[in-house]
Amino acid sequence: MSVLIATDLVKRYQLEAQTVEALRGVSLRIEAGEYVAILGASGSGKSTLLQLLGGIDTPTSGSLEILGTRIDALPDRELTRLRLTKLGFVFQRFHLLPVLTARENVELPMSEAGVKKAERQARARELLAYVGLGHREGHRATQLSGGEMQRVAIARALANAPALLLADEPTGELDAATGADIMALFRRLNADGTTLVVVTHDESLAAEARRVVRMRDGSIVSDERRG
Fold it and tell me: For the CA atoms of the chain, what is the radius of gyration?
């Protein structure tokens, strides 16, 4: 089953008198259960592509389907709901709310989706235990290490059981040992059935994936499946 189908995605930005073409006709299909790394140097278009795949930005042209729904032309309200219920996001800088505890941060997307309090508290505890932080659920983000914050962010991304988890440079703010722990968690997530797309410039992180899509100058230059 195809979770995502991107067809001929083009993204142009106007910077003063100059038009910048960040994506140049990118097509990509992601199947359920895949672990895909999108690899490229800074400026290759990989983060722009991730923003389009996640419905954070819209393409200049081309089409994008998630679970059979064209999202590139959805009204804002429907797109927001789809992002909340079908997609999970993990970012380089965590984006946790510092005034909330770890459990409250994980509960937040469930609260926005209308999940009842008792149910969302139970699932938040379950997810924090899954990422190895059950003992830290009452700590605020400011009391956590970088690796712990990223684990909370991953638990939060999984809160509404998304069909697709998108991660943008998820180890970029972490030291090598902590980054390795996050990579091990991603392997476990995928083994447990989560469909993953990870954007990175790090060859070691990309090597963890079962499929590596390389980008250069706004285009896909190779698409290699492993194993």
Answer: 17
Alpha-carbon span 13 to 223, nearest angstrom: 26
Report strand pairing: 69-70 vs 61-66.
antiparallel
What residues pair up with 12 in beta bridges, in sequence order? 21
**Cβ-Cβ contacts under 8 Å for 134 (sequence gap 6 or more):** 125, 128
Q: Is 222 exposed, middle or buried (0-12, 13-18, 19+ CB in 10 A)?
A: exposed
Contact between residue 36 and residue 209 where contact means Cβ atoms under 8 Å apart = yes
Q: Quick: pLDDT tens for 205-217.
A: 899 999 999 999 9
The pTM for the full model equals: 0.93
Buried b (16+ CB within 10 A) or exposed e, 157-189: bbbbebbbbbbbbbbebbeeebbbbbbebbeeb
What letter would DSSP give residue 15?
Answer: E
